[in-house]
Amino acid sequence: MTSLTLMAPAKLNLFLHINARREDGYHELETLFTFLDFGDELTFSLSHDTKIHITGDTADIPLEDNLIYKAAMALYPYKQVEQGICVQLTKKLPMGGGVGGGSSDAATTLLAINQLWKCHLSNEKLAQLGLSLGADVPVFVNGKTALAQGVGEKLTPVTLPQRWYCVVFPNVHVSTAQVFTHPDLPRDTNKLSQHWALSNTRNDCEALVKKLYPEVEKTLVWLLKYGPTRMTGTGACCFVELDSMDAAQRVLSSLPSYWQGFIAQSSNISTAHVQLDSWLKM
Ligand SMILES: C[C@@](CO)(OP(=O)(O)O)[C@H](O)COP(=O)(O)OP(=O)(O)OC[C@H]1O[C@@H](n2ccc(N)nc2=O)[C@H](O)[C@@H]1O
Ligand SMILES: Nc1ncnc2c1ncn2[C@@H]1O[C@H](COP(=O)(O)OP(=O)(O)O)[C@@H](O)[C@H]1O
């Protein structure tokens, strides 16, 4: 088989605690990742040459900067076939929104090309290659709901109840690097490995991002009418947790037209992995 279509699902950080800043500037975190059944769509097919081609919703990202390209390049030395790869991207996740679209695209690319180029690398090796592309890539490669520690690479799988979410993108872009280098970011939260309820946890980036981007605060205040809310990652997307699809749909229907949003159910296994397993059984 020479082609394969997989989702690159969104993630939410159900909480994000910052425990310390390391010598290299990176931060020690504790964060609970869940996957959503909504994401970008990527179709991979072997190319007629030896190059890496990306078409579709590539926005204005130069080819060499696209995380899909970087992921393909990371696998290039392990390639066991002559051909290169064509990747057709349908982008549904806001870029730099805290839902991990770029990292998820990279992880899905590693999983798919590993098959098409017959690299035969383990998921552990793919996660190791992925970590050099971004701190969030390993959790997507692993594909299981997880508590992440370290800079995001130490993963402990956890099983969470499936819930519905309405995720809102407040139309502001938050730079992850700006948040992590800001002097006002709290960096001394104690480690916590249990009692993960939303009520017992927080996102340590949220107060700072609300201050820097009032639109994020406005979004959280609006969502709070419907249920427990939080910002994901370093923002700017915010989510509300809900009991049913109907409840999530009601929130989305009332969303002011100047914001964008989507609804999705959480899952303990990434849709990319479910789809890859079915493809392997074909
Ligand atoms: C903090 C999270 C939580 O999910 O934020 P989001 O990106 O999802 O919003 C992620 O781990 C981010 O992962 P990712 O976006 O892949 O980060 P990277 O590209 O590796 O790093 C971007 C920048 O963030 C900072 N950074 C990132 C991760 C970390 N544990 N400590 C850091 O200090 C570094 O300054 C780095 O230069
Ligand atoms: N395929 C891609 N999809 C999204 N962003 C990408 C991609 N390739 C490179 N990037 C860059 O990575 C940055 C972070 O992307 P993303 O993972 O969507 O953010 P976040 O981790 O905040 O959700 C973007 O601002 C963009 O410049």
TrEMBL record:
Domain GHMP kinase C-terminal: 197-259
GO molecular function list: 4-(cytidine 5'-diphospho)-2-C-methyl-D-erythritol kinase activity; ATP binding
Keyword Kinase: yes
Domain GHMP kinase N-terminal: 66-143
Active-site residues from the entry: 11, 136
Entry-linked HAMAP family: IspE
Protein name (database record): 4-diphosphocytidyl-2-C-methyl-D-erythritol kinase
Organism from which the protein derives: Pseudoalteromonas caenipelagi
Gene: ispE
